[in-house]
Amino acid sequence: MSVPLIFAAREMLESFKGFMLGNDKFSFLESSLNSWLYPMDLEFTLKKDLYYSPRDSRGLPMRRLVSVGDQYVPTRIASYALAHHNRYLLTGDEHSRQRFFAAVEWFMSFPDGVWYYNFSRYGLKPPWISAMAQGEGISVLVRAWKLTQDPVYLSQAQKALKPLLIPLEQGGVRSALPDGSPFLEEYPTNPPLHVLNGFMYTLIGLVDLWRVSKELVAPAGLDDLLDSLDKNIGLWDFGFWSLYDLGHLHAALPQVASMRYHNLHISQLTFLGRFGHRQGLLEAAHRWQEYARSPWNRWRAFFHKVRYRLRALGETK
To answer: CA 132, CA 75: separation in Å to the nearest integer?
Structure first.
């Protein structure tokens, strides 16, 4: 069996287990609304030995790719950092504080405050940038500032805003939804995919910076971005499940979210809706939570996920 087929089979098995059994991964942390805990519970990532494997000599996670070998992935390092940050705040674990700051130093090692991907994805050629990486990096840096009060971390977070202000056509990650509302792209493809979780991860980063300095985050237009999401959240509602992206607007099959990403969407919407007082986001979170409680909806979502993956696999042959 070829490597792509093995990978697809493993992914489908994991997806099947998630849809059939449900899971609580990426659950919302209520206390994040009045503390510096990251809104999603990432503790499960630290409890699974291979989740952040392989690692470099500093213990930072990498991703092993058949085509190019071990690579740093900004969002993976951010997840590692934020998981350890939450554990440190909740337990006082000094080892987790050290792991958090090891990741912080990686984000500080890029003078321009832009974190690049050095492998191909969705037709993007390296090096390419991502709104999600910038947003999660900002979340990491703001928490480093909160723990130390060292202004160098806020300075780097401010630099990280730059790609979020530049249109897709000019090398940035800012695009527009069909109605013209602003959007920030996890993958700066043309045409844009409009990946939902990546946009919301970015918004959470902007919210984190807003909590420290409204002036620093002002150029990004946080209110307009939250309004855009609130007004358009229905675009990612498939009637019984949430969609991962809007790629089907460009003739692809709709890509429903996995069980894990569906849970993530609910947690992200809950945080952004609660923080930003956006009723539409809270209503969507509640509706999608009800979708997830239905075994029939989970079966339907799994069917659509298999259909999408089989077509994608056929297109790679």
So the answer is: 7
The CATH code for residues 3-316 is 1.50.10
Domain coordinates in residue numbering, the chain: 3-316
Pairing, β 69-71 against β 63-65: antiparallel
Phi, psi for residue 174 in degrees, rounded to 5: -95, 125
Sorted by sequence, the CB contacts under 8 Å of residue 174 that are 6+ apart come out as 131, 164, 165, 166, 167, 168, 182, 183, 184, 185
For the stretch 259-296, pLDDT in tens is 999 999 999 999 999 999 999 999 999 999 999 999 99
pTM: 0.94
